[in-house]
Structures are given as C-alpha cells and as structure tokens.
Specification:
Blueprint lengths: L3 H4 L32 H14 L18 H13 L11 H14 L13 E7 L5 E6 L5 E6 L3 E6 L5 E6 L5 E6 L5 E6 L3 E6 L4 E2 L4 E2 L5 E6 L5 E6 L4 E5 L4 E6 L6 E6 L5 E6 L3 E6 L5 E6 L6 E6 L6 E5 L3 E6 L4 E6 L11 E6 L4 E7 L4 E6 L5 E6 L5 E7 L4 E6 L3 E6 L4
Antiparallel strand pairs: 1-29, 2-3, 3-4, 4-5, 6-7, 7-8, 8-9, 8-10, 11-12, 12-13, 13-14, 15-16, 16-17, 17-18, 19-20, 20-21, 21-22, 23-24, 24-25, 25-26, 27-28, 28-29
Helix pairs in contact: 3-4
Length: 424
C-alpha cells in the first residue's frame, strides 16, 4: 500500500499538509482522562475570566519550553489527583484530611526517579475492512457502543465496537471525508468533506439531515460538538473557524482564526472555550460566547500545528506538530510543559487522544505515526509506554475509550483496527 490513495485526492489534508505551511514566518498577533474532581467545575468557570484579564501574558513568555518545563510536582498533582478524584468521594468525611495528605504524598512520590510506572500492553482485537481508500479519522461514540470511520472514498462507516460488524454506510458526500464528530448523545454524527460541506447524520437510520451546513469556501479539516450538542465548531482550509447552531444549520460566529489552513479544533468540556490550530504554527484559545481570542500559543520552532485536543480536565492542550513532536501546553500560563517524541510526523495531519492506565490512576497520550506505528507515552514523565505495530501505512486517526481499555486506529492501509489492553 502506497500513498496514492490520498495524494490523488485534491485535498492536501488526505491528510497531507501544504508545503507552504512549513515556511510561514512566526505570526505573533491575535488548539475524560478519568474522574472529575469535586473542585474542577469551579476552576473551569474561572478559566475564561482569567484569560481575559491577562490576554497578553503568553506573548511575552520565554519560548524555551524544555528548559522551563515547569514544576513536575505541579503537573503530576494536577493530572493524577484529578484522575483519582471521584474514587475518594465515597469516603467518610472524618478521614478527608488524612486522605488528602496521603494523595499529595502519593502524587509527589511519582516524581522521583524510582517512580513506578505500569506499562500498557495493547493487543490487536479486530481488523475492520470495507473502506476502499485511506481512513482519515476514527471515533468511538460517547457511549462506546459504536465506532465511526471516515475515508477518502467519500463514505462514513459505523461499526459495532464489540463484534466489529458493519452497522451503517453513510453516503452523500461528493468528495473525500476528512473529519467526523459524535454528538454527546451518540444519536448524531457530523462529517466534514472536501466538497466544502458539513453533513449531520441520523446514526440509527443512516440518513443525512435534510439541510447541510454550508459556508466554508474550502475543504473541511476538523469538527467538534459542544458538550451540550447544540453547537458545532469547524476548521477549514479556508483559514477560518466557524461556530454553528446545530438546530438551524446556520453559522453563529465566524472567527478570523489563522493565516494558514486550520487543521484542528476542539471544545473544552464545559463548552466555554474553543481551541484551534493551523499551519501558521499558532494555537489559539477562543471565548465561545464572544468570539474573542483569549490566548495565542506559539513554540519557538514554529512548526505547523496539525491537530489539538483539550485534556479532559480542561487545564491543558495537547498539540501535534510537523516536527515529530506532540506537546502539552498549560495555556493559562502560556507555556509548553511537556514534549513527547518517538513517532514520525513530518508530512501528514495525524491525530491522537488521551487515555488512562494503571487502574485509572495514571494517564497516557497516544499518537499515530507515519511509519505505521502507534506511540503511547506517560503524560507526566514522557516515558514511551508502548509502541503498537500492525498497520501497513501511515496511521492517521486514533481514539480511546475511557475505562474500557480500548483503542481504535485507522490509516492509509484502508483498515480500522481495534486494540484491547484488557482493562476493566
């Protein structure tokens, strides 16, 4: 299998990035790991106001992210304590103080060189075949019952997560499909295509809603539903980010986001913020209500950014760049706190996801790779936990199913593969 499937498509996304993006100069003006902690909603409610009060702080920061990779103590406590939060809710109030003290000591102990890291071991469970060209994206439904995949063959396919049975083929786009997104209730699937349209599908019937979402002037690269499912954000090759009203199928807001094609968009989990990224090397944080750009993040290497994801706790942004790096950003401080390496990503727009392991107490970041592998790193210490082999070409899309120990991937070999690590 070679790259002809994607390179013959008119879209650079299939999933190849425009060479012009590599030479863009720095543009300095205005992208559930586990349980939710009891204090997290309050933090998220404060996020937008904090960013509005200090909109320029990130532009004056030092770009030496590795030298100032920040407090490992802070990151470990923020990440790991967040994961374990709900497990402590049922404990008696009389033991709350000692429980918190023990939690802090446990988190800090992980920072030592002797930190015990449990390794993940994903093994191939299913190989799903049916797409006639490369698979651009794969997504588990929020409930975990189904997997959706989209392809350069202009179709979207719905699969049963457990059996691998093909449940639906969604047809209607006139060109390849680069991106898909599930609504929070798993009843609707959104798809973005090279035909410049976004379609909404009734997953049960396999039929498209009568009114497509039209407004972008070029290929659709990325989609994400808001947590309530009433809004959809899209990023396009036309350099714009659109915020849509799902009910009326109309654009609510157009964000003059970037000076290069927009490769990735995502909603924070309470819906108040949007993150976007582009070939101009910028990651931008937007206020959903006002459309104001609250923060701009840019690394000193200024590599094109192809994909972004908010961490489920809302405190970080994970970004994929065309220098074979995945970076974790603390966007409130405007600082890159972790850089993950060990995969290859120099030409294609590759995605990934967060996940949990070690009984749900530790977190990982996973990414596809242009050499046909999947890389999985511990979020805190950046250790490569596992490298999964199986695909015969570039792995473009990847998603995880929290709490079930499942991972799904798709790539240029036209297959969708489900991986299981036996986690219950």
């Amino acid at each position: 299998m070679d790259e002809s499937d994607f390179e013959s498509s008119p879209s650079p996304k299939r999933r190849r990035i425009s060479e012009s993006a590599r030479t863009t100069s720095r543009y300095s003006s205005p992208d559930e790991l586990a349980a939710i902690s009891d204090h997290e909603p309050r933090y998220l409610r404060r996020t937008s106001s904090i960013l509005r009060e200090h909109p320029e702080e990130s532009r004056r920061r030092s770009y030496h992210d590795e030298a100032s990779e920040g407090s490992s103590d802070e990151l470990s406590h923020s990440v790991h304590e967040f994961y374990r939060g709900s497990r402590k809710r049922g404990r008696r109030a009389s033991s709350a103080t000692s429980s918190r003290d023990q939690s802090v000591m446990t988190a800090r102990s992980r920072l030592s060189p002797e930190r015990d890291v449990s390794y993940v071991k994903y093994e191939q469970k299913l190989v799903l075949k049916g797409h006639r060209r490369g698979v651009a994206a794969v997504k588990f439904s929020p409930g975990g019952r189904c997997i959706a995949s989209c392809s350069a063959d202009a179709t979207i396919r719905i699969w049963d997560t457990v059996t691998g049975k093909q449940l639906q083929i969604l047809e209607g786009h006139l060109a390849g499909v680069s991106t898909i997104a599930w609504s929070p209730d798993s009843k609707t699937l959104a798809s973005g295509s090279d035909d410049k349209s976004i379609r909404l599908w009734d997953v049960t019937t396999g039929k498209a809603y009568p009114t497509p979402l039209l407004g972008h002037h070029n290929y659709i690269y990325s989609l994400a539903f808001s947590p309530k499912g009433n809004m959809l954000v899209s990023g396009s090759y036309d350099e714009a980010v659109f915020l849509w009203d799902v009910r009326t199928a109309r654009v609510m807001r157009s964000l003059p986001a970037h000076s290069d094609p927009v490769g990735g968009v995502d909603f924070i989990r309470d819906g108040t913020l949007i993150v976007s990224c582009a070939g101009d090397g910028l990651i931008r944080i937007w206020d959903t209500a006002t459309g104001q750009c609250l923060r701009t993040l840019v690394h000193e290497d200024n590599a094109p950014v192809t994909s972004v994801r908010f961490s489920p706790n809302g405190k970080y942004v994970l970004a994929w760049t065309l220098d074979s790096c995945v970076r974790l950003w603390d966007y409130l401080k405007g600082r890159c706190v972790k850089t993950y390496q060990g995969h290859k990503n120099e030409k294609y727009s590759i995605g990934g996801a967060f996940g949990v392991y070690g009984g749900g107490t530790q977190a990982f970041a996973a990414s596809g790779s242009e050499d046909g592998g999947i890389a999985i790193w511990d979020v805190v210490n950046k250790e490569l936990l596992q490298r999964i082999e199986g695909h015969e070409g570039v792995v473009l899309g990847l998603d995880t199913l929290s709490g079930k120990g499942l991972l799904v991937s798709g790539g240029l070999d036209r297959t969708v593969r489900v991986w299981d690590c036996g986690q219950e």
